[in-house]
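Hi C.,

You asked whether I'd gotten around to modeling the 253-residue construct. I have! Everything is below, sequence then structure, no commentary in between.
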Amino acid sequence: DGSRGSGLMHHKFLVIDQTMVITGSANLTSSGLHGDPGQPRTRGNVNHLLRFSSPELATVFRQEFARMWGDGPGGEQNSRFGLPKASGGRQTVQIGDTQVDVLFSPHPKRDRNHGLDLLAKQLKAAKQSIDMALFVFSAQQLTNALREPIEQGIKIRLIADPGFASRPFSEVLDLLGVTLPDRNCKVEAGNQPLGQALQGVGTPRLARGDKLHHKFAVIDNRRVITGSFNWSPSAAHTNDETLLVIHSPQLAK
């Protein structure tokens, strides 16, 4: 039923008239956009949407849609999701002066095109700052990728969803140097918390039921990482997802 967060068609994108792409972290629901019906205290999940006017980018997204759609209901059984979809590598589109890198998931762990590798490379390439706003952060690989920037004194800040931040598998705990056993008193396999807590890690106060649902990072005030892609192994290796790296100081600001 999707409650485990894996095996999902997790995309959030629209392609309109083969020229416009709308995507980001927001699901097209009341709670995703402006609050739960009948719950006036809620403000909706903390999300973002981006709109691109680019026939070239629209083509890239329509190709991803075509793989999943196949020839439609009642036709051949050629709709593909998950690993059978055979997602390719990163694609680059130039929109004016802005470079947009697009990666669709999932990939097998042995495929070095996978999204966690792309994220790790972006984090390791940081020279000045890394700002992150994350719903789910559960990939040990990315905590490991942050160790080098931390040692170099690069400014790192994280706002994390409070509902996921304190779960035993959360890498937010690793950044705080904390190990939390699960309900069976077992520690996550391969867990590697930092030896010293990272300063600048926090969670927001939200109305009951609202979530910080972003999946974005800003690197060096020049690049924005975003999409439907939670920073998790499921996003990289199981779900159908969008991961974008947008090279734009204006958007980063």
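If it helps when you're writing up: The chain has a mean pLDDT of 93.

Thanks,
B.
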